[in-house]
């Protein structure tokens, strides 16, 4: 299942986060009961109104879990996004000359956008695989018992 949420330059979401969450949950509901679904969000300001979805009757059985201000050991998506960012940086470094060489009649923004769109549409699918997500989620399992027991954890392990 793919959920695409884009942030604008101000850090605010363009489009509706609530709509995206509803679509994701409805897609999940088509395959399985939602009673065992937990949506994990970090504390980014763009997620401030996300809880309103879980107050709706249709999604009342879904749990929303908010992570602490900095919890990389419990935030599998951070590791996934880190792998994606690294791949994009490698792609941009390899194509630096092409990126800087703007064709006649094309704006710098339009030219660079083609490289960013490639990174978003092609590299994302190549890097962010089900296997990578599975590995990153399984990595956090080692920290769950400590989190449940409210033990202190070393950040970044």
TrEMBL record:
InterPro entries: RNaseH_sf, Tc1-like_DDE_dom. Residues 22-91 form the Tc1-like transposase DDE domain. GO terms for molecular function: nucleic acid binding. This is Tc1-like transposase DDE domain-containing protein. It comes from Phytophthora nicotianae P1569.
């Amino acid at each position: 299942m793919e959920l695409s949420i884009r942030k604008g330059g101000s850090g605010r979401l363009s489009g509706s986060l609530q709509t995206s969450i509803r679509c994701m949950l409805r897609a999940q509901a088509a395959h399985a009961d939602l009673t065992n679904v937990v949506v994990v969000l970090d504390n980014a300001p763009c997620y401030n109104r996300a809880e309103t979805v879980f107050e709706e009757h249709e999604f009342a059985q879904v749990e929303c879990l908010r992570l602490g201000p900095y919890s990389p050991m419990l935030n599998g998506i951070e590791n996934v996004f880190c792998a994606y960012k690294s791949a994009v940086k490698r792609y941009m470094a390899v194509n630096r000359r092409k990126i800087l060489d703007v064709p006649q009649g094309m704006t710098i923004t339009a030219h660079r956008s083609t490289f960013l769109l490639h990174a978003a549409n092609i590299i994302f699918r190549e890097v962010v695989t089900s296997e990578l997500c599975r590995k990153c989620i399984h990595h956090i399992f080692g920290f769950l018992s400590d989190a449940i027991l409210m033990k202190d954890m070393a950040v970044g392990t």
